[in-house]
Amino acid sequence: MTVKSGLEGVVAATTSISSIIDDTLTYVGIGIDELAEFASFEEVVYLLWHRKLPNKEQLKELKAQLADHAELPEGIITFLKSTNFKDVHPMTVLRTVISMLALYDENAEAMDANSNYVKAIELQAKISTFVAAFSRVRQGLEPVAPRKDLSFSANFLYMLTGEEPNEIAEEAINKALVLHADHELNASTFTARVCVATLSDIYSGITAAIGALKGPLHGGANESVMKMLAEIGEVENVEAYIQEKMDAKAKIMGFGHRVYRGGDPRAKHLKEMSRQLGGITGELKWYTMSEKIEEIVTTQKNIPPNVDFYSASVYHSLGIEHDLFTPIFAISRMSGWTAHILEQYDNNRIIRPRADYTGPEKNSYIPIEERA
Ligand SMILES: CC(=O)SCCNC(=O)CCNC(=O)[C@H](O)C(C)(C)COP(=O)(O)OP(=O)(O)OC[C@H]1O[C@@H](n2cnc3c(N)ncnc32)[C@H](O)[C@@H]1OP(=O)(O)O
Ligand SMILES: O=C([O-])CC(=O)C(=O)O
């Protein structure tokens, strides 16, 4: 048996949702640069779910559906308010709450295409309400009810802060959500597909996916990047800090990628946003430090930054708490996960690879009294 470590290069599914070919990312064939410039997140959700851009009516309908499903069940608000989350990571709570949502869905076990589509809307609508509510409740604040008249991005920021965001913040979040929405067979999407390929339900698939996204080698890297930037503190400390890490052969968070070799096409958009937002807040140092880290890592190791690297300083400049960075990634990736789950159900076969056994060939049962 030949083992492909980390399944590198193994093609394990077909998909018509997104592609990465020669370092170019597309959603349903539309280049990520175009989508980053022109698309709203709601358009991207529609695109991933239906494989075509919505017309005006279709977009209006999707926005109304997302708005109609945005409220959290009262039981989840009660759970949030009755639990002390001081030392609990928001991704841990998010994973639990996504699983809990099934308890409030009378149709939770239904597996027909329409029921699963409605569940996808539910999950996409509620995840941002939850992340915002969690952030407020742990600060001792009341959750802010979702509004129907705001865009998905503006509504998230509104629920987080209680104030309508300015256009710059809304556009920045929109672009970040567009850029993170889907990414072929990344670890969390693969996890979701493996889970639902047993014909388990969509809540189980998303719960599993959130668990996979949480790790610092995947979505958790954005928070780790910010931790690194905060540890470095000032631009003049960058060189010594990064050199020490590289000498110790430590991974620099936010760099490297399994598929991209010439660089992650999403990073340049986040880099530019980081520069612009840093200029607006007057705290350009996070961008400057990031740029210096990029220069050192690419010069010495030829490893370019990935999507997580500049998203850290983008979210920081927007005043977002650092442990919400990965939950925001999850808000966006919910669109891709649900699209992949629906695609898996449409043409399902259980995913069950093999393992090359490396244990002892022959062994026998020794009674416990005789064991060392
Ligand atoms: C949204 C996302 O999930 S994007 C990825 C987010 N994750 C991170 O930013 C964490 C840091 N990066 C990494 O750990 C890796 O690059 C991954 C997990 C993204 C990809 O992992 P793999 O494809 O298995 O690459 P692998 O770890 O084998 O790296 C190949 C070589 O590049 C080096 N390398 C890869 N990433 C980095 C890094 N961030 N810093 C330093 N060296 C690195 C490895 O040490 C290895 O070197 P070697 O061949 O001398 O041993
Ligand atoms: O594709 C991957 O391996 C990780 C990634 O960049 C993503 O999920 O956006």
UniProtKB/TrEMBL annotation:
Q: Could you tell me which Pfam families the record lists for this protein?
A: Citrate_synt (PF00285)
Q: Which UniProt keywords apply?
A: Transferase, Tricarboxylic acid cycle
Query: Has the keyword Transferase been applied to this entry?
Result: yes
Q: Which GO terms describe its cellular component?
A: cytosol
Q: Does the keyword Heme apply?
A: no
Active-site annotation: H257, D308
Under catalytic activity, the entry for this protein gives: oxaloacetate + acetyl-CoA + H2O = citrate + CoA + H(+)
Q: Name one GO molecular function term.
A: citrate synthase activity
Domain of life where this protein originates: Bacteria
Signal peptide (from-to) = none
Q: Tell me the protein family, please.
A: Belongs to the citrate synthase family.
Q: What name does UniProt use for this protein?
A: Citrate synthase
- Native organism is Gottfriedia solisilvae
Encoding gene per record: citZ
